[in-house]
Design brief:
Blueprint: E1 21-23, H1 35-40, E2 46-48, E3 51-55, H2 70-73, E4 95-97, E5 100-102, H3 104-107, E6 122-131, E7 142-147, E8 158-161, E9 168-174, E10 179-184, E11 190-194, E12 203-204, E13 208-210, H4 213-223, E14 232-238, E15 249-253, E16 259-264, E17 267-269, E18 285-291, E19 294-302, E20 308-316, E21 320-326
Parallel strand pairs: 6-12, 6-13, 11-21, 14-21
Antiparallel strand pairs: 1-3, 2-3, 4-5, 6-9, 7-8, 7-10, 10-11, 14-18, 15-19, 16-17, 16-18, 19-20
Amino acid sequence: MSRSSFSALWVVLGWSALTGCSALIDVGGDQCTVDDECERLGFEAVCEQGICVRSEMSGETCDGGSCTTESDAGPEASPLGGSCVGSLRCEDGVYCFKDQCVIEEDVSRFICTVRAPTPVDAVRFTMPVRDFVTEMPLAEMVVLACLENDITCDAPVAMFEDTAGTGDVELDLPYGFAGFLEVRSPDALTSLWYFTKPLYEETNAKVLKAVAPDTVELLASITSVEVEVDKGIVIMEAFDCMRGAVGGIHFEEDKADALPFYIIDGRPNTASTITVRNEQDNQAAGGFINATPGFTQFFARIGIDGPLLGTFNANVKANTVTYIDIHP
């Protein structure tokens, strides 16, 4: 079974330029009813209309460490593995990465230089979509772009119909778009591809490999696992600052009832516990089989017990493939 790439989703949802705040995607009914429920999910956020929402950050753009000033951080330092809100909160020789005190060399490839985006009216987004096995375009493909709070995709902001049969999606999306694509075709299961960070600049995404019903049967035979039609399949992949797929990443999900797998030598492997990078096609993917439908929080760690690289909340739907890319 050949596999040139697995296009998947990041993890900490960025700040929405459209609304002035970030709604952490609600994906199967209300995400919260009170602020305490957001904290329980791991978000510093408040509950607004059933969704955990974080206030917009200040104009400073940060990555890796926190934007908190020295005066805010306080005098007490945290040891390796402890929590932090700025580099001064960690012990000497330890770096504050995403509010965790870690060894800097372990996370250096995920500490990116961030440049301020230039606002524009619309941003061009392109992405090839191919069949997982045959690598051919899907017949009668329709792609809807939906805002993060449009859970059922009833009011898409843009639509692409592949009348030419090329399989190459082209969309002009609002600046700062944070939502998902719903890919439909009679040839494949419905795919949900999430924007795990806001769209600020023209982007050519990796190929999305759609899964046909007979491919699901092949997946079941390889893994010796019955794929349940009332559950979902999730495909995840993590990337570094240079957009290279990263090996050594461990994926988790908060419901802890789906079967994890990783793509090893082009085939799904349920015994592996971390991603393995395929240099030839820049792929290091994993995911979950028989994921329970509804709101689910997914995690990516650097190593099995290493620092948290990111987390993302996504909608899992029955008989649907959900793609989650993790970007710094």
